Records
---
Amino acid sequence: MTAATPQKATVLSESGLAGRIENRAGKVKTTLTSRLASGIALLIAIFWTIPTIGLLITSFRPEADIKKSGWWTWLSNPSFTTENYVEVLTGGRFELSGFFVNSIVITLPAVVIPITLALLASYAFAWIDFKGRSILFVAVFALQVVPIQVALIPLNKQYVSWGLSGSFWTVWLSHTIFALPLAIFLLHNFMKEIPRELVEAARVDGAGHVKIFFVVLMPLLVPAIASFAIFQFLWVWNDLLVALTFAGGAQNVAPLTVRLAELSGTRGQAWYLLSAGAFVSMVVPVVVFLALQRFFVRGLLAGSVKG
């Protein structure tokens, strides 16, 4: 037996494994694209969408019709009105427009601040050698397992001692603190996928850390940044726990979710207006997701340098 025999066996084994993987992938693709799988997926999508369709129809039905019959009767006795939306946006009973602005004021900084800090931290963990880097990164990663509920009371006490209670800062800082571990972990992994030769070539050309970060890495990180930005935007926009804890007592800083929760508790009989309010709160997340979904898909499936 020669020394080339094990190498040949290894090559054959690897080619056989690759062939089995391709065959399995082909079978999976054929199964998922079959008529039966497509029919099941379509059926699930229809059942999943029915509650949303019912809520949408309810938001456009007159109050008298809603109190008299269910939304499905609209198909046999259609009636349409926009008074619910007019009352929700401009009426004295609900007046969600101010809370809508508060949600925007809360969400935008709560997305930009953690992403900015996470990018800087991720670059340091990925491309700067310093003592204790691995231990510190593991510590940051481990913070993801800490439930945010255990930090609410200590944070609230700290904000009160700093004189920040009842301001937007409490919500911005809280969302930044809770988002940073996951943001650093995800962006660090994307940065580590960038070929080291690319960074080394920039250093040979005389580029420093600032130029490498902004000129070399940032264009490659757009899909990853967009992916996390969508996650963070949807989380902050739909958040109730953090907003209720730190901004629930101040109406001038309370977001839409807090107002809708209050209305559902005190005016449950006017839930036809709540359905209109729910759709008002859904408009911005849907627009953001549709605008960034191509970056979202690239960030999830391709990675920063493969897209």
Note: The first helix runs from residue 4 to 32.
---
Amino acid sequence: METFMKGKFIAAAIILGTLLSLGTQAQAQVKLNGAGATFPYIIYSKWFDLYHKKTGIQFNYQAIGSGGGIRQVTEGTVDFGASDAFLSNKQLSDIKKKRGTAVLHIPTVMGAVVISYNLPSVGSGLRLTPDVLADIFLGKIKMWNDSRIKKINKGKKLPSRAILVVHRSDGSGTTNIFTDYLSKVSKTWNKKVGVGKAVNWPIGLGGKGNDGVAGLVKQTEGAIGYVELAYAVQNKLSYASLKNKAGKYVKPTFKAVSAAAAGFVKDMPSDLRVSIVNAGGKDSYPIAGLTWLLIYQDMKDKRKAKALKDFVTWALDEGESYAEDLYYAPLPKEIVAMCKKQVAKISTK
């Protein structure tokens, strides 16, 4: 009898092991396709690699800009999108009509859009005010030794050199954050150009992606452009301190981004669509933004839905710990809790 029971136990263990193995293999065969923002690409690449090693789940993410990500989510050609600009009510309504499901906005990290420049005679430490920055990008201030720039940068060797403005050529969430800021600090910018992922730039050259803008600034003496902080650091670009709403010059650090977000936590809408540019508070960096994953609430492939749901939960619990090393700001715990409520809405049945 004892031998019989022992045999049954071993057989059950083998069956259980086989089932677990098959389950793991099935999960490992899942491949998630995504597209969108270049802003968070550096940390997303890290997360995708770590999570693949942990679970076997594969990711194919195309960093084509937020505009491209939103288009592909709308057309249903990806499993998830990524954007630094949240969707409008009309865009959400259009997707629901086309795809038959709502789209959830789930913030992952925060970042700073920094003003990078190439001025060897100045080096680091350039200061810019909101009005001067807007007038540079409007083409009103044309030379680096303009009296308005000299006035706020006493002691700096500003060259008699024309300013070359560099902007994005593709639909970009980084552009959306930057133009949102300029529209809030400059009535002229708001009236003439406005806010958007792609706008009619008054002047300048276009570069594709954050890396494209960073590359043009790096190659061109006298250039100025806007990029996510990680790209400025990776390319060893100088970047300016900006005068914030409280009147203090602030460098773009993850602590300054967290300070900007802190003021918005109590007013965060339940769908997590919010802009945090030009925040109040003496320590707040003024051009800060959230970046979102765009996820179908009801995915047709339930294996993919479970894999994506598990991944996002891991990213919010463990992935955030990699943010600061990669020059992003982790989400405040209050926002993480709100994100998890959104993740719970993803249907896996």
Note: The two ends are 43 Å apart (CA to CA).
